[in-house]
Amino acid sequence: MVRSAGWVSLVAGVFALILGIIAFAWPSATLKVVGLLFGINLLILGVVRIIQFVMSPDAPVAGRILGVVFGVLVGLLGILCLRDLAGSIKLLVVFVALGWLLDGLAEIFIAIGDRRAGSGWRIALGLCVTLAAVAVLIWPGLGMATFLLFGATTLCFVGICGIVLGIAGLRARPA
């Protein structure tokens, strides 16, 4: 169970890191491409969160239920981004920031409910994503360039942490 969760974290981390690198490499990408990339990321994050909470039998039931709800909401925000790629940039920024906020909170809940090694990394990851989401929500008019900088940086950090957590999960001894 721990190893399969490690693979899920590793794959999600690699995907997020690749998206972050792409966002850094092509900052002048069209809104449709950015909406597509972030929408796909939120959709995958939502599915990953649902899987992680379903596969965490040690976590409290209330935390697992809340985590699954957060995962569903993150996935729905991803679908909304994918549905209207050419929509308002402010609306896209708010959708992505809300998705990050929910994902960051879900990561913090995972860390609190999970007493295994790596909880500190999970809390750091959750705080980083949550703070980035709050910053984007507070200042939505920062412009696309700043949003891409926040987004690409957050995706790279999330990707690196996901890869570290995935490797740690794969190296963990079965209980």
UniProtKB/TrEMBL annotation:
InterPro entries: Acid_resist_chaperone_HdeD, DUF308_memb. Keywords: Membrane, Transmembrane, Transmembrane helix. The keyword Membrane applies. It comes from Actinoplanes regularis. The keyword Signal does not apply. It comes from the Bacteria. The chain crosses the membrane at residues 6-26, 33-55, 61-82, 89-113, 119-140, 147-170. This is Uncharacterized membrane protein HdeD, DUF308 family. One of its GO terms (cellular component) is plasma membrane.
